[in-house]
Amino acid sequence: MTSIMTNTSAMSALATLRSINQDMETTQDRISSGFRVGSASDNAAYWSIATTMRSDNKALGTVQDALGLGAAKADVAYTAMNSAISVVDEIKAKFVAASEPGVDRAKVDKEIKELQNQLVSIAKSASFSGENWVAHDANNTAGAKEIVGSFNRDGQGNVSLTTLSFDTTKSSLINFDPAQTDGFAVEQLDVAGDGGSLLSGLLIGNEYVTDKTTATPVDFQKSLLTIATDGLDSKQMAGAISAVDVILQKMTDSAADLGALNSRIGLQSDFVADLSDSIEKGIGKLVDADMNEESTRLKALQTQQQLGIQALSIANSASQNILSLFR
Question: How far apart are the C-alpha atoms of 320 and 327, rounded to whole Å?
C-alpha cells in the first residue's frame, strides 16, 4: 500500500543507511587506532585481559632492567675477582722466587707490597650503583644480595616476585670493618712455624700460639695484605706459599660462583625477554585489528553506503509519483 502519511520504504532505507554508517564508523576507528578492541565497550572480557597483561608486561620490562643491573654488579665483581686472582698469583710467584738462595728479599717484599696495594685498589674500585660485592665495611656489610628475577601472577590473580640470591661473603676480598673477619685478603694465613705447627690456633693479643697450655706466642700472624718474605725460614716460606695457594683456590671458587650467577642472570634475562614478546603477541591476537580485513570491509561499506543513499532517494520520490496521479 502506498501512503502519503507514512513512507515505509524511506524509513527502511534510512534505517539501513544508518546501520551502514555505524559500521563504517566502527571500521574507520579500527583502522585509525589499529585495535579491534579499543575500549571495554567493544569487548569487556578481552579488554580486561589485555589491560591486565599489558600491566604485567610493563612489570616484566622493569624486571629486565633489574636483571641488567644485577648482571652489571655481578660482572664488575667477577672482573675484580679475576684481576685479584692474577695479583695473588703474582704474589705467590714472588714467594717462590724469594725461596731461592741469594735472592734479595727486601726488593721482593717491595714488589709484594705494591701487589698488596693493588689488591686494595681493585677491591675499592669494584663498585657499581653504590654496591661493592668484593670490598665491605660497616656501611656495606657482606651478606645475601637479592636480584629481582621475574614477575609472576597465579590463577587467582595474586602477584609475586622471584629473586636470585647471592651471598657476598663468598666474594668478599677485603672487609675494612675491624669487627668483621671475612675477606680473602684479610683472613689469617695458616703458615707452618719451625716446629711444623699450623698457626691457626689460639690468638693472644696480636699473635697466634700453638700451645694452649703454655700460651707461648709464635712470631707470625699475617694476612695476604701484610705477609712478606723477610724473616721467614725455609719451612715458613713453604707454608706461606701453600697458604697463599689456599687463598688463591678460594678466590678461584668465588670467581666461578660469580660467573655462574652472571650466566644464570643472562639466561633469565633472555627468558623474560621471550616471555614479554609472547605476552605481547597474545595481547595482539585478542585486541589488534586485522588491517587487511578492515580495509576490505571499509570498501564494501562504502559501496553499500552509496547504494543506500540511492535507495533512500528512490523511496523519497514515491510521494512525488502519487502527486502526479492528480495532475
Answer: 11
Domain presence at residue 235: no
Q: Which amino acid is at 86?
A: S
Q: Of 11, 24, 134, 28, nearest to 83 (Cα)?
A: 134
**Inside any domain, residue 303:** yes
CA quadruple 237, 239, 242, 245: dihedral sign: negative
Identify whether the C-beta of residue 254 lies closer than 8 Å to the C-beta of residue 184: yes
Torsion of CA 182, 186, 187, 189, to 10 degrees: 170
End-to-end CA distance of the chain: give it in Å, rounded: 21
Q: Write the DSSP assignment of 91-106 as a string of letters.
A: HHHHHHHHTSTT--HH
Contact 61, 276 (CB under 8 A): yes
- 300 within domain boundaries: yes
Reference 189, options 232, 224, 238, 236; nearest CA is: 224
Residue 256 confidence (pLDDT):
96
DSSP 229: S
Taking only the tens place, the pLDDT of each residue in 83-121 is: 999 999 999 999 999 988 888 999 999 999 999 999 999
CB 190 within 8 A of CB 243: yes
d(CA 10, CA 308): 10
Q: What is the pLDDT of residues 1-47, one digit of tens each?
A: 566 666 788 888 889 889 999 989 888 888 988 888 988 988 999 99
- Residue ranges making up the domain that contains 30: 12-34+294-317
> Crossing angle of helices 291-316/8-33, nearest 10°?
160
Q: Which of 72, 81, 91, 73 is nearest to 250 (CA)?
A: 81
In a domain, 138, yes or no: no
Confidence of residue 203 (pLDDT cuts 50, 70, 90): very low
Range list of β-strands (E), the chain: 127-128, 131-132, 135-136, 144-153, 159-167, 174-175, 202-204, 207-209
Look at the chain and report how many structural domains it folds into: 1
